[in-house]
C-alpha cells in the first residue's frame, strides 16, 4: 500500500496490537469494530505476522472488510471497515 | 406462573435433543455418582481464589443435573419439584451457558481429587455444546472458530500471504543461524514430519531453528493448530477445522504430525480427532516438546544451559499435562536448556489451572473472572522466585502475562521451544 494511499484513509479509531499474539489481535479488532458505527474505519498496528491472514479471515467470516494492509519491517498496519 | 415463549419452547426442544445425543455412559456416570461430599471444592482454582458455594465443581454440575433430570430421568420428569427442576427458559439457559463457559476451565483437576473420579468437566463440556447449539455460545469464540473455517474455504487467497510470511521468517532463521542454507520448507511431499504452528512467528522461528540444527526432514503446515470450536463444544466445526490438517498430512504423506505448544490444539488432534472421525488417524500425532526431548536424548542439539541463566519455573498446561500425559518431557528439556529450574508447587497432575483455559482468554468481558481465578497461580509463581515462566500453551501464556501485570509478578512468559532455541544460537 502506497504511503499516500494510506494517508488518505481516515480512521475513526486507532488501536495498538503490537506485541500481542494469536488470538488476541482478532479479539481486540472485533471489540473495536463493534464499537464503530456502520461505515466506520479502524486502524490497527500489530507485530504478530499471524494477523496477515487472521484479520482478513475474520473480516470475511463476520462480513466486514479489510480495506488496506501494509507491512513495514516488523510493524503491520491495517484498516478495517465496519460493513454491518 | 412462568410464561414460556414459542422461541423458548424451540430452544428447550433443541437443548433436550442435544443432551440426549451427548450424554453417553461416561457423562451419565458423572451425573449419577456424585454424593455431594464437597471434596472437589478445595481442588478448584475458582473456589480457592474466592471460596463461595457457587464456585465449587459440585454446584456447577448440579445446575446441569437439574436439566438432565428434567429431560432424561423418568423420576425427575414425574416429580420435578424433588430435584428443583424448572422449565428451561431463556434466562435459565443463558445462566447455564455462563456457568459452563466462564466458571469452569475444563481443567479436570477436580476429577483427580474426587473419590469417585466424577468428571465435572465432561458435564460442563456437554453443557457448552447444548448452549452453543441453542445460540448461547460466546460470540468471540464463535467468531474465532468461523475465521479458521474461512481460512480453509479461501485457502487459495491466503496461500500467497502465507508463503510471503514464511519467506520473511526464513530470512530471520538464516540470520539467527548465520547460514543461508537454513530453510522453512512448505508443501514438501514425503517429509517425515508435518509441523503445525499457531499463527504467530514465536511458534515458527524457534522450531525452525531446532529442526534445521537437528537436520530434520520436515515441512511447515499451511494451517494453524488452534481449534476454538472445541471450546464451544461444536463438534461439527471442530471436525472441519481438524480436517484441514488431516487432509494436508495425507496429501504430503508424512509419517507424523507435530503440534506446536498449544494445549487444546494438541488435545484436539491427538485425543479428540480419532473419536470425532471414528477411526485412528493415518499418521502419528505428537507434540513438539516430545520431539525436542528426543533430540536432546539423542544428543543432536548442542544446547548451552548457561544461555538461560535466570531462574525458570514451569506451568503445566492442563491439556498437555493432566489430560495429555506430557509431564516429564518438558521438565527433561528445561533441565537441559536452563541453568536454574525451579518447580512450582503443586505441579504435574496436581497443578492448578492458570485461570485462562478453555477459551476464557478470548472473551474480554471475563477478564475480572480470569484475574480472580488466577490468583492462586500468581501466588505459586511468586513463591518460586523465578524470573521466567515457561508454559506450553498460548492461552496460558497470555493469561500468565496478564497475571504478571495484574499481580505485579515481574515475570516473562515463554515456551519450551523458545528457550531451547535460545540455548542453541
Q: In a nutshell, what does this entry contain?
A:
The complex is a heterodimer of chains A (about 80) and B (about 425). By secondary structure, chain A is an alpha+beta fold.
How would you sum up this structure, described in words?
- The complex is a heterodimer of chains A (about 80) and B (about 425).
- With about 80 residues, chain A is α+β, with helices and mostly antiparallel strands.
- Chain A has a single domain (about 5-80), classed as TusA-like domain (Translation Initiation Factor IF3, 2-Layer Sandwich).
- Helix content of chain A is about 35%, strand content about 30%.
- Chain A has helices at about 5-10, 25-35, 50-60; strands spanning about 15, 40-45, 65-70, 75-80.
- A four-stranded mixed sheet of chain A has the order 1-2-4-3, covered by helices on one side.
- In chain A, helix 2 (about 25-35) links the parallel strand 1 (about 15) and strand 2.
- The longest helix of chain A is centred in the last third of the chain and has 12 residues, at about 50-60.
- Chain A starts with a helix and ends with a strand.
- The model of chain A has no long low-confidence stretch (mean pLDDT about 90).
- Chain B has helices at about 5-20, 25-30, 45-50, 55-70, 75-80, 90-100, 110-115, 120-135, 140-155, 155-175, 205-215, 230, 235-250, 265-275, 290-295, 330-335, 365-375, 375-385, 395-405, 415-420; strands spanning about 195, 220, 255-260, 285, 310-315, 340, 390, 410-415.
- In chain B, the strands form two sheets. Chain B has a four-stranded parallel sheet with strand order 2-1-3-4. A four-stranded parallel sheet of chain B has the order 6-5-7-8, sandwiched between helices.
- By secondary structure, chain B is α/β, with parallel strands linked by helices.
- Chain B has three domains: about 5-135, Orthogonal Bundle (Fumarate Reductase Iron-sulfur Protein, Chain B, domain 2), CATH 1.10.1060; about 155-295, Rossmann fold; about 305-420, 3-Layer(aba) Sandwich (Rossmann fold), CATH 3.40.50.
- Chain B has 20 helices and eight strands.
- Classes of the chains: A alpha+beta (about 80), B alpha/beta (about 425).
- The interface between A and B is medium-sized, with 21 and 33 residues.
Amino acid at each position: 500500500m502506497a504511503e499516500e494511499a494510506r494517508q488518505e484513509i481516515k480512521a475513526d479509531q486507532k488501536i495498538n496490537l503490537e506485541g500481542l499474539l494469536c488470538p488476541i489481535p482478532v479479539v481486540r479488532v472485533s471489540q473495536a469494530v463493534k464499537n464503530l458505527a456502520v461505515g466506520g474505519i479502524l486502524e490497527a498496528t500489530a507485530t504478530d505476522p499471524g494477523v496477515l491472514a487472521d484479520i482478513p479471515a475474520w473480516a470475511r467470516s463476520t462480513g466486514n472488510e479489510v480495506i488496506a494492509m501494509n507491512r513495514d519491517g516488523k510493524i503491520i498496519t491495517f484498516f478495517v471497515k465496519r460493513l454491518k | 406462573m412462568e410464561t414460556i415463549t414459542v422461541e423458548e419452547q424451540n430452544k428447550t426442544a433443541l437443548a433436550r435433543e442435544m443432551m440426549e445425543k451427548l450424554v453417553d455412559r461416561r457423562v451419565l456416570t458423572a451425573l449419577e455418582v456424585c454424593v455431594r461430599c464437597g471434596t472437589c471444592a478445595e481442588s478448584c482454582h475458582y473456589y480457592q481464589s474466592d471460596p463461595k458455594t457457587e464456585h465449587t465443581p459440585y454446584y456447577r454440575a448440579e445446575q446441569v443435573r437439574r436439566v438432565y433430570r428434567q429431560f432424561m430421568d423418568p423420576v425427575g420428569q414425574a416429580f420435578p419439584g424433588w430435584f428443583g427442576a424448572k422449565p428451561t427458559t431463556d434466562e435459565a439457559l443463558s445462566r447455564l451457558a455462563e456457568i459452563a463457559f466462564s466458571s469452569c476451565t475444563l481443567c479436570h483437576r477436580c476429577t483427580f481429587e474426587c473419590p469417585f473420579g466424577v468428571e465435572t468437566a465432561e458435564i460442563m463440556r456437554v453443557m457448552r455444546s447444548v448452549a452453543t447449539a441453542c445460540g448461547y455460545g460466546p460470540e468471540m469464540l464463535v467468531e474465532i472458530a468461523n475465521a479458521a473455517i474461512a481460512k480453509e474455504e479461501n485457502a487459495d487467497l491466503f496461500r500467497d500471504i502465507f508463503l510471503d510470511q514464511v519467506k520473511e521468517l526464513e530470512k530471520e532463521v538464516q540470520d539467527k543461524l548465520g547460514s543461508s542454507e537454513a530453510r522453512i520448507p512448505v508443501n514438501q511431499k514425503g517429509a517425515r514430519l508435518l509441523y503445525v504452528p499457531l499463527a504467530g512467528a514465536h511458534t515458527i522461528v524457534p522450531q525452525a531453528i531446532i529442526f534445521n540444527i537437528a537436520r530434520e526432514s520436515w515441512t511447515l503446515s499451511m494451517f494453524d493448530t488452534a481449534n476454538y470450536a472445541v471450546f464451544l463444544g461444536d463438534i461439527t466445526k471442530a471436525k472441519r477445522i481438524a480436517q484441514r490438517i488431516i487432509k494436508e498430512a495425507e496429501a504430503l504423506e508424512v509419517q507424523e504430525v507435530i503440534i506446536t505448544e498449544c494445549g487444546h490444539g494438541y488435545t484436539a488432534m491427538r485425543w479428540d480427532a480419532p473419536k470425532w472421525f471414528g477411526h485412528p488417524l493415518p499418521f502419528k500425532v505428537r507434540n513438539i516438546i516430545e520431539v525436542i526431548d528426543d533430540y536432546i536424548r539423542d544428543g543432536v542439539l548442542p544446547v548451552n544451559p548457561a544461555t538461560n541463566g535466570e531462574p525458570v519455573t514451569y506451568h503445566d498446561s492442563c491439556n498437555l499435562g493432566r489430560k495429555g500425559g506430557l509431564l516429564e518431557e518438558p521438565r527433561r528439556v528445561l533441565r537441559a536448556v536452563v541453568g536454574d529450574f525451579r518447580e512450582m508447587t503443586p505441579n504435574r497432575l496436581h497443578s492448578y489451572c492458570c485461570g485462562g483455559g478453555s477459551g476464557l482468554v478470548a472473551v474480554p468481558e471475563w477478564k475480572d473472572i480470569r484475574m480472580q481465578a488466577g490468583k492462586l497461580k500468581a501466588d505459586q509463581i511468586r513463591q518460586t522466585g523465578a524470573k521466567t515462566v515457561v508454559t506450553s500453551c498460548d492461552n496460558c501464556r497470555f493469561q500468565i502475562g496478564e497475571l504478571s501485570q495484574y499481580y505485579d509478578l515481574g515475570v516473562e512468559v515463554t515456551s519450551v521451544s523458545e528457550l531451547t532455541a535460545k540455548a542453541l544460537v
